[in-house]
């Protein structure tokens, strides 16, 4: 006898994702997340938020946080998100995220969270000194996604494990509260050569906002000189580029620069190698710098333009928050009823 699988979620396809306002956005955020948001907004209903609840899991200067939220919103708009098409909002303006996260804290198992590698990476050797919020960060992330019953989550490779946890939480909630198909089991949209952009200092760590070295990343607000200088200084070896992906894989720094070129140019790494195999970095780096300046320069300029009008950014964020609250409210109400809250 075989078990009949529970009925699958039957609602519409929806996209949800977000970025933390923890500092200047970099090329990894752009290729791993922002470019995909912009593409997907025309395919499915799209919700993109600024994750200020997530940001405070590690210390943020309260005097700067609001400005950082606006900066992320400006980056969204500059990379092509259209507030008439996508719902763009700050997480803290929709209290239902935190309310749903509490329910999910009671659904998720400690053993599941103990396996999360991002917590281990961020906490390093002294995990007992980190906030409890950093530990339960992926549970809040599950609430962000499932509050809107999102089915597709465009993220970088680093978030894949958190998405698996979201699926586990959704399945356990549906099962435990006897509501099969209530939440979808969302899919991570992770693909292409920009899914894991590595640090320019060493091809082993991911490019990150919180890396103390400015030369590890290219920021969206860097000017042409800074972009060219960072690419020039990126760590590489003296060998020419190889002609196979297998040979490239043995050289992580080279592989990273080729992947960045491919992602910026809308090509595959194999296509880039076909053009540059046999060439040294003396040739490749200036070409990469020209491409990066051509693609990122207009984004940085548009960001500065949006940032010069914070009133307009706040208007967009407030309108987005209103819409997000409307979509999330009935889902949270059903969750409360399913759980059996007095106020449900
Ligand atoms: P922090 O260093 O503060 O943790 P971060 O740079 O890792 O920040 P997040 O705000 O955690 O950025 O991530 C925002 C989005 O950007 C996520 O979808 C994440 O997967 C994606 N992303 C982050 N870093 C990279 C990277 N190096 N390559 C590709 N995608 C990335």
Describe this structure in words.
With 344 residues, this protein is mainly α. The protein folds into two domains: 14-189 and 310-339, 3-Layer(aba) Sandwich (Rossmann fold), CATH 3.40.50; 214-220 and 229-305, Tyrosyl-Transfer RNA Synthetase (Orthogonal Bundle), CATH 1.10.240.10. Helix content is 53%, strand content 6%. It has helices at 27-40, 52-55, 62-78, 96-105, 110-114, 117-123, 132-146, 160-176, 224-233, 245-249, 252-265, 269-276, 281-307, 310-339, and strands at 14-19, 45-50, 87-90, 152-154, 187-189. The strands form two sheets. It has a three-stranded parallel beta sheet. A two-stranded parallel ribbon has the order 4-5. α8 (160-176) links the parallel β4 (152-154) and β5. α7 packs across α8. The longest helix has 30 residues, at 310-339. The protein is globular, with a radius of gyration of 21 Å. The relative contact order is 0.15. Pfam families: tRNA-synt_1b (PF00579). It comes from Phenylobacterium parvum. InterPro entries: aa-tRNA-synth_I_CS, aa-tRNA-synth_Ic, Rossmann-like_a/b/a_fold, Trp-tRNA-ligase, Trp-tRNA-ligase_bac-type, Trp-tRNA_synthetase. This is Tryptophan--tRNA ligase. A motif ('KMSKS' region) lies at residues 206-210.
């Amino acid at each position: 006898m075989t078990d009949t699988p529970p009925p699958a979620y039957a609602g519409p396809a929806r996209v949800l994702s977000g970025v933390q306002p923890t500092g200047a956005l970099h090329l990894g955020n752009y290729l791993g997340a922002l470019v995909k948001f912009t593409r997907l907004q025309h395919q499915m209903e799209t919700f993109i938020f600024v994750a200020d609840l997530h940001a405070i899991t590690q210390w943020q200067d309260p005097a700067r946080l609001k400005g950082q939220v606006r900066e992320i919103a400006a980056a969204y708009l500059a990379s092509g998100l259209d507030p008439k098409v996508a719902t763009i909002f700050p997480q803290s303006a929709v209290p239902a995220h935190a309310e749903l996260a509490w329910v999910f804290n009671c659904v998720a198992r400690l053993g599941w969270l103990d396996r999360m590698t991002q917590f281990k990476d961020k906490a390093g050797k002294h995990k007992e000194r980190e906030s409890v919020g950093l530990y339960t960060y992926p549970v809040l992330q599950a609430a962000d996604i499932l509050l809107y019953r999102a089915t597709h989550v465009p993220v970088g490779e680093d978030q894949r494990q958190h998405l698996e946890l979201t699926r586990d939480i959704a399945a356990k909630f549906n099962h435990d509260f006897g509501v099969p198909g209530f939440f979808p089991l969302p899919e991570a949209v992770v693909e292409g050569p920009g899914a894991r952009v590595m640090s320019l200092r060493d091809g082993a760590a991911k490019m990150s906002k919180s890396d103390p070295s400015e030369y590890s990343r290219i920021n969206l607000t860097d000017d042409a000189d800074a972009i060219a200088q960072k690419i020039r200084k990126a760590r590489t070896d003296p060998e020419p580029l190889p002609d196979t992906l297998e040979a490239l894989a043995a050289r992580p720094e080279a592989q990273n620069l080729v992947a960045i070129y491919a992602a910026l140019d809308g090509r595959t790494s194999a296509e880039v190698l076909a053009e540059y195999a046999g060439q040294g970095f003396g040739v490749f780096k200036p070409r990469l710098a020209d491409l990066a300046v051509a693609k990122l320069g207009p984004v940085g300029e548009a960001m500065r333009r949006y940032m010069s009008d914070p009133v307009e950014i706040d208007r967009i964020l407030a309108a987005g928050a209103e819409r997000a609250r409307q979509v999330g409210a009935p889902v949270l109400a059903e969750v409360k009823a399913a759980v059996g809250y007095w106020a449900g």
